[in-house]
Amino acid sequence: MIKNKIQSKLAKAFDKNLADAVDSFTCSKEIQSGELDFVTQTYPIISVEAYSGRGVLFGSYLKDMVKPTDYQVTDSKAVVLQNEVTQVPQITDVWNTSKGRFKVVNIGADPTGSIWTCQLRKV
């Protein structure tokens, strides 16, 4: 109950006070399954899934903070509310944003299960 209340208030802040810091993204990915086609070296596409969301997408990692093991200097940190994203992000998803395309390299959740922190890498 408290989690929903906090997320509701943050969503309102995303619309008003934090609007200049918030960016939106979309993701469309092919779901493949079946037997490998040896000629094309691909699996058959069985469906395409799409999702979207918004959050503070282009944060940076502080110099003195612990960074992911595969961190690169050009990586960005995205902080998104879980209730603002229409599907659970997965590693290797590519997000289309106002600043270009970014691949999700790493994902973490906070202990309350309300925020995802994603490591993004420019594609």
CATH architecture: Beta Barrel
**Name of the CATH first level:** Mainly Beta
What is the averaged pLDDT score? 87
Share of helix, binned: 10-25%
Fill in the CATH topology: Thrombin, subunit H
Number of helices: 1
The whole-angstrom Rg is 16 Å
Globally, the shape reads: globular
Domains, number: 1
What is the makeup of the main sheet?
Answer: 6 strands, antiparallel
Order of helices and strands: HEEEEEE
How are the secondary structure elements laid out?
Elements: H1 2-15, E1 23-32, E2 45-59, E3 76-81, E4 94-97, E5 100-109, E6 115-122
Antiparallel strand pairs: 1-2, 2-3, 3-6, 4-5, 5-6
Explained architecture:
With 123 residues, the chain is mainly beta. It has a single domain, classed as Thrombin, subunit H (Beta Barrel). It contains one helix and six strands. The mean pLDDT is 87.
Task: Give a concise summary.
This protein has one helix at 2-15, and strands spanning 23-32, 45-59, 76-81, 94-97, 100-109, 115-122. It is mostly beta strands and 123 residues long.
Q: Which tags fit this structure?
A:
123 residues; mainly beta; Thrombin, subunit H; six-stranded antiparallel beta sheet
